Protein 1
Amino acid sequence: MKGYYNGNLNDTKMDEVKLGKTKNTYIQWLVTRENNAPYAMRKFTIKPEGFIQMHYHDYVETLFILNGECKTYVDDDLLNLKKGDYIFIDTKHRHKIINTGKEDLEFICVIDYPDNMDIIPVDEE
Amino acid sequence: MKGYYNGNLNDTKMDEVKLGKTKNTYIQWLVTRENNAPYAMRKFTIKPEGFIQMHYHDYVETLFILNGECKTYVDDDLLNLKKGDYIFIDTKHRHKIINTGKEDLEFICVIDYPDNMDIIPVDEE
């Protein structure tokens, strides 16, 4: 068996993210456990005026911002993130991500694979 | 305890990679198991004429190319990679990475944490 798996963003399937009120958000799965990785690397694109609604899950995640700018809430904290910023969000901590710029917000997001992969949306006022 | 950890590339310590004949190569550790991640996200910079010599290890790795271009060898295969390309390299498969461009080669590299984290250099003719 070949010792590697490779691809390019332009050739990787892009799906719209469906999670509650989430808007203008797209995901590409680059590398997953199907490739024998114990983690998944995904690439997200949030168009202007788009956002991922508040939610939490058992898996941890690390975001690395490739392009654009956003507000990221984790629990009650607010962070303004831009290209070159990264953030690790620990298991079960609620978070949301809002594109605050005029460009696409693009980031890499690496997660692990705990037993429970459910995503729990959190309604806000 | 805070549910997140964050930083920026410009504020993250950069170390030269010392591995056999490896040249002009620098690593930054963005997120590690010390942050409660079961993986590590690192950022590599290989300057023009730089390369990482052939080697292998038990940990798997995924490269995501941010900038520049390179030749990557995995076992006896050669891949030409550029911005937007990604590659997963499975456990124990030997590989090397050569900056073939005039710009810095920059990539994200995500690894797991198997019991044995040793890096074994492979001498070539």
Protein 2
Amino acid sequence: MMIEEKPALARPAPFKFEPHHFAPAAYNLESSIIRDILKFSNQPGVISFAGGLPGPDLFPVEEIREAADRVLTHYGTKALQYGLSMGYSPLREFIAERVAMRGGVQLSADNILVTSGSQQALDVVGRAFLEPGNYVLCCRPTYLGALQAFSFYGARYAPIEMDNDGMMVEKVDPVIRELHPRLMYVVPNFQNPSGITMSEKRRQLLVQKSQQYGIPIIDDNPYGELRYSGTDVPSIKSIGGQAVIQLGTFSKIISPGLRIGWIAASRQTMGVFERVKQCTDLHTNEFAQYVIYEFVQNGALDRHIERLKVAYHERRDAMLRAMSEFFPDTVTWTKPDGGLFLWVRLPEHADATQLFNSAIEEKVAYVPGKPFHPDGSGGNTLRLNFSNASLENIHEGIKRLGRVFSTLA
Amino acid sequence: MMIEEKPALARPAPFKFEPHHFAPAAYNLESSIIRDILKFSNQPGVISFAGGLPGPDLFPVEEIREAADRVLTHYGTKALQYGLSMGYSPLREFIAERVAMRGGVQLSADNILVTSGSQQALDVVGRAFLEPGNYVLCCRPTYLGALQAFSFYGARYAPIEMDNDGMMVEKVDPVIRELHPRLMYVVPNFQNPSGITMSEKRRQLLVQKSQQYGIPIIDDNPYGELRYSGTDVPSIKSIGGQAVIQLGTFSKIISPGLRIGWIAASRQTMGVFERVKQCTDLHTNEFAQYVIYEFVQNGALDRHIERLKVAYHERRDAMLRAMSEFFPDTVTWTKPDGGLFLWVRLPEHADATQLFNSAIEEKVAYVPGKPFHPDGSGGNTLRLNFSNASLENIHEGIKRLGRVFSTLA
């Protein structure tokens, strides 16, 4: 008996990825408008106030070189091996002590998870807390990177108005009662994008609301150590204790390329964060953790931050001076006591996104404010970075911007 | 008229995190049993075959030290600054050329996304493709880290039996028709945990099924360059082209502590991967990318891999010899042509998880096989790592394990 072979399958068409292959939450992610704008900003001759970059002229390159050399001379096989999901223990102890000392709170290494920059800290927080449709209470405007991290998990936003004392917390009750937010998210010190610092009274009220409604607070604090004027305000973590999850990073005070940030939180939450971190990327770059730990020894971090503060203070003042000189009277701006950013408000009818094209013609760049507004408002606002430009470029760039804004009439 | 003030709110109880505060997908994550086992394995005097660690005695510490020194001397301000979400372009070009050369495929830097180790590559893939309830077709056993990454996104699994030629692809049709998997996941070379390499015929059949049903293949390839015997099999990517997303890493061939892996895929998918990467952690450690790029120049990577292969070849052979000498006849094992792992099968009734306690009493550690089986089978199997032990320890440790297994009767 002959057994008839089945005919071979017709050769299928070459594989092509279609939208249905992807998870909608990923496929529908929008590219950051900031990233697109940064491409324009890098054109030759453009003075850019767009990025959130620290000044590379201030990187402690030589000290990092020496630290890396010592790490590989003395701990090479350990720094190059797999590490723990929670992070390199001596670095966690250093972070705990520093956060505790500056924040007036009690912390140990067990309260610290090391992350790949504070963007990953935001992502870990999003993963740990958010389900699709959950609301996040935040400021209007708020940090764009947090919106990007949380939105992947299906977050919606309950944006609260700000004044010069930060989020207007006295307005949150009806919003909380209606939307039951899962998290409260704030950048209390020298906020990105506005540069505004939340007052102590508002911090206390926020903690009170957090306790009253049982909603954790995410206290995102990348700039807290970069104060150039005024006096420190007690940290939300020191007021709220267990309820507060504080995020920090070495990106703005040492180097963003090393990608070392952290989450400081109660032990109750750390088990969840650790398991999330483990399935995400096992652990943070071990070599970079060793290098940072080696660099910060013997007060080197404090000395470096003092250098940063002197330089950024000058740059902030130069920008404020130039704005007074060159911006028309119809334009207003914040006067931040620290951080990297100033916030500009154009006349109501102006569109900072459209105006960006005129700015590029004048060879100067900024970031339009609209993407920082989860409700799509803020079309007449924009963000200026003052940390990543020389004093000369600040003067010249603001002069160019002044010409652009003068056309607004 | 007196306006009566509302009474102050009673001071609320201190905040306490409860399960309802967390997203269930995160709260319910299980800690990796491997992580728990590694804690036991690190006790003094224990010979551990448990981890998946490369041998630290073989790390190119001095060359990395020189590379780091050159990077910070010549490119300090760039290596310490923010970078691109896709990764450092020269490194992406190097990876593209190397993957193309070894895999017989056409690739450019545009096809490469640099990730924080290949665990993050798995996470990015999970984010990009998986929705809750989606099935992933995989081997039984399969890599535990992939299960952890995918499970966060709600994946379920369609595990397919393996023989010495890898996944028995001829059995997939009814499974695919019933469960409509969103992805096919394989570790084709020296699989973790089994050490098995998929035959060319099976690879071709897998690609045919992928084309036929329109399901992308994840070709996870951390060990492909570590072959000690036999000859290379054409890569799934070279057979399947666009349909295949290949994951790679420098963890096993340079250093896991530097956490540099990658995704090699068609441009159609790269836009999604890039946006996912951006909201996850902005970009991979820039300094580590520069250091690796500096290290691999002038054939240094090939020379280093040759050294690894000589050493791991000896260790594999030492373990196989010792197993023949000390293991009872009722125990069988694989003879991998490369990679870091051997796979052991105990008699049917044996429980490798329970037996771990006896092993620890004998001061020797392994990983029980059950967690690598998404269907909960494999209780009588276990994984041994041979890359992270000296020849003496391999002999002595296998001797100890032989004593443990002899009690099985």
